[in-house]
Each structure stands twice: as structure tokens, then as C-alpha cells.
């Protein structure tokens, strides 16, 4: 029919001149398989349909990928005498499939490279947790011994220098520990269970009991949900947020932290509100970046990793986090956790 000329450029007359016309234009690499597949079906009386894919030469000289579907007519003895069917040009589809295969192969390669990179990072984490910390402990230890043994021979300036050195070593060790915590987020945790977030907050309050008592702080929460997951990152999440609220409280006002939750269709929306010193709007995005501090280290302790850790935990749980705040009036951190089943 007209499809022969429309798809492949041959007229019906050209095709009718040679009964071998079709097979002569099948790609040489596909010809033998195509013939064998057809003959196998023709000889088996139980088959009335044949289907095959191969490359067919168009009049332009280019090869098209085609799919053939044919109905086999047989005589009274079951001998194949004729095949009627249709041929479709699937070149575009094959090219698309090949491009998908190429993309998939690239993704496999990138995944392998990423796995190798992660293995190197884990090795670095091991080195950082052991080899890098040992010299810092040694520096702190020897400086402390130096001060004990020769303290009466040193002037105030020397004592100050020793204090600076010891403090620097402690800060560096804390940075290493925070980096290790940050690098561990996202690793698959074993033994996921139903976690009662009310118990998580109680645990965090116990961890900060001394600070809460000293500041006369009040932590309010109730009716928090149970979610399926691992308790460790959830403790770390709330611990960092509550710790921040206590750290950045007003010097003359007892800290008050209110933790609430709203149930939405597919997720839980949490809020952690405090009455602290607040954050200027221009810093809302910056505070979630690694090593970002808004205050002098002498005014407030820490390495600038807390909120970066919080953000990574929330995003690893497929949630979102943001903040609303007015300088001098406190801050409210919002984050979501999708509802999941075991």
C-alpha cells in the first residue's frame, strides 16, 4: 500500500518486480536471523502469527528499524502459503530506547563512582575520628601538664596563651566531631521502629537538664505523634533545635520553648518556637549552611554546624525546614516529616 512509499520510499511497482525485494533490503547482519525465525514459524502448523524486528534499507540508502507483524495463511495440509501483515518504522523509538540505555549506563557508572567516593569519605571519617583527634588531645594534655608543673613560674600572659591554646584545641576537636555527625546523616539505619516523639523530647530535656535548671527554662510540648523511623536522628534533630533556643535566649528573660505539631494530609508539620534574641530576615537562609555563625564565638559557643545538621536530617527524611523570626522577639523553626508506614 501507500505506506511502503511513505515510510521507505519505494513504489508498489518497484516492489512487485522482484519477489525477493523484501529480503534483499533486510540488513545483512539481520537477514539470517530473520529468515530462520520465519522458517521456524512457517513449518510449525500451530503458529499463525509471526513477529520480528530488524533493519530495513530505505530507498535513500539509510536503514530503518522496523517491526513486522504477519498473519500466516495455510492450506488444508497446514502448509504456509501466504503471509499478510504490516510493517512499521520504529527508528525513533529505537533511538529513544538506545538513548535511555545510554543514560542508564551513565547512571550506573556514576552510582559506582559515588559508591567509591562514599567509601573514601567513610575512610576519611574514620581517620578524622581517631588519628586527627589524638594530636589535639595530646596538645591539650601537655599544655595542661605544663601549666600544672610550671604554673608558678609563668606570668599572667603565659597563662593566657596556654588558655587560648587549650581552648583552640577543644574547639578544633568539637569541629571534627560535628563534621563526623554531619557526614553520618543519611546512612541507612537498621532497626527502624515506631518512635514516640513525646519520649524523644523527654530524652532531650534530660540531656539538657542542668542547663534548663540554670536558665530556669520551660519546655512545653504535648500530644506529639508516633512516627516510624530510627530514634537517633530524631533525638539529634530536636536536641539541636532546643539547644539553640536555650543558647540564644535573652539574658534577662527565662527561656520558653513551645513545640507543636499540625497534622496535614500526607505529612506532619512541626514548630519549635522560642522567646530568644531572634534572627534578622536577611540571615534566614544563611543559618542552615555549614559553619555559618551570626555571632562572635566568645559570645556564644558552638561551631556553626547545629542547624546544618538539622537541615540535613529533615531533608533526609524527605521533609522541609524553614524559619520565621523577628530580631529581639524570638524565632520559630518549622519543619515537616512525611507520614510513612512500616
What this model shows, in words?
By secondary structure, the protein is α+β, with helices and mostly antiparallel strands. The protein has eleven helices and ten strands. The strands form three sheets. Strands 5-7-8-10-9 form a five-stranded mixed β-sheet. The chain has a three-stranded antiparallel β-sheet with strand order 1-2-3, with helices on both faces. β7 (256-263) and β8 (267-274) form a beta hairpin. The radius of gyration is 36 Å and the shape is elongated. 16% of the residues are buried. The model is unreliable at 293-303 (pLDDT under 50).
- The end-to-end span amounts to 59 Å
Structural class based on helices, strands and sheet pairing: alpha+beta
**Order of strands across the widest beta sheet?**
5-7-8-10-9
Q: Roughly what fraction of the amino acids lie in strands? A: 15-25%
Helix proportion range: 40-55%
Query: Can you tell me the overall shape?
Result: elongated
Q: Would you report the number of β strands?
A: 10
The number of helical segments is 11
The major β-sheet equals: 5 strands, mixed
Radius of gyration: 36 Å
What oligomeric state do the depicted chains represent?
A: single chain
**Which parts are unreliable, with pLDDT below 50 for 5 consecutive residues or more?**
293-303
Mean pLDDT across residues = 83
Series of H and E elements:
HHHHEEEHHHEHHEEHEEHEE
Core attributes:
about 350 residues, 3-stranded antiparallel β-sheet, 11 helices, alpha+beta, 10 strands, 5-stranded mixed β-sheet
Amino acid at each position: 500500500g501507500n505506506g511502503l512509499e511513505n515510510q521507505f520510499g519505494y513504489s508498489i511497482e518497484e516492489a512487485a518486480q522482484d519477489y525477493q525485494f523484501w529480503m534483499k533490503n533486510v540488513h545483512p547482519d539481520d537477514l539470517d536471523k530473520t529468515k530462520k525465525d520465519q522458517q521456524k514459524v512457517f513449518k510449525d502448523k500451530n503458529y499463525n502469527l509471526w513477529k520480528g524486528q530488524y533493519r530495513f534499507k530505505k530507498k535513500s540508502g539509510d536503514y530503518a528499524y522496523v517491526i513486522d507483524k504477519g498473519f500466516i495463511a495455510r492450506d488444508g495440509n497446514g502448509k504456509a502459503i501466504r503471509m499478510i501483515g504490516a510493517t512499521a518504522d520504529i527508528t525513533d523509538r529505537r533511538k529513544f530506547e538506545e538513548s535511555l540505555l545510554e543514560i542508564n549506563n551513565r547512571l550506573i557508572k556514576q552510582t559506582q563512582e559515588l559508591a567509591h567516593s562514599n567509601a573514601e569519605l567513610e575512610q576519611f571519617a574514620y581517620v578524622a575520628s581517631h588519628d586527627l583527634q589524638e594530636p589535639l588531645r595530646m596538645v591539650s594534655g601537655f599544655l595542661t601538664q605544663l601549666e600544672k608543673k610550671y604554673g608558678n613560674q609563668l606570668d599572667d600572659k603565659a597563662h593566657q596563651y596556654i588558655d587560648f591554646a587549650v581552648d583552640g584545641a577543644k574547639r578544633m576537636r568539637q569541629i571534627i566531631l560535628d563534621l563526623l555527625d554531619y557526614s553520618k546523616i543519611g546512612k541507612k539505619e537498621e532497626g527502624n521502629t515506631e518512635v514516640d516523639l513525646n519520649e524523644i523530647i523527654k530524652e532531650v530535656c534530660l540531656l539538657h537538664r542542668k542547663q534548663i535548671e540554670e536558665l530556669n527554662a520551660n519546655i512545653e510540648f504535648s500530644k506529639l505523634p508516633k512516627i516510624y523511623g530510627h530514634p537517633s536522628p530524631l533525638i539529634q534533630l530536636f536536641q539541636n533545635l532546643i539547644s539553640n533556643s536555650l543558647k540564644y535566649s535573652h539574658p534577662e528573660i527565662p527561656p520558653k520553648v513551645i513545640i507543636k505539631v499540625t497534622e496535614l494530609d500526607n505529612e506532619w508539620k512541626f514548630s519549635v518556637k522560642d522567646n530568644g534574641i531572634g534572627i534578622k530576615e536577611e540571615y534566614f537562609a544563611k543559618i542552615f549552611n555549614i559553619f555559618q555563625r551570626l555571632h562572635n564565638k566568645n559570645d556564644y559557643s558552638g561551631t556553626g554546624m547545629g542547624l546544618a545538621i538539622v537541615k540535613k536530617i529533615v531533608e533526609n527524611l524527605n521533609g522541609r525546614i524553614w524559619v520565621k523570626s523577628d530580631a529581639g522577639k524570638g524565632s520559630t523553626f518549622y519543619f515537616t516529616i512525611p507520614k510513612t508506614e512500616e
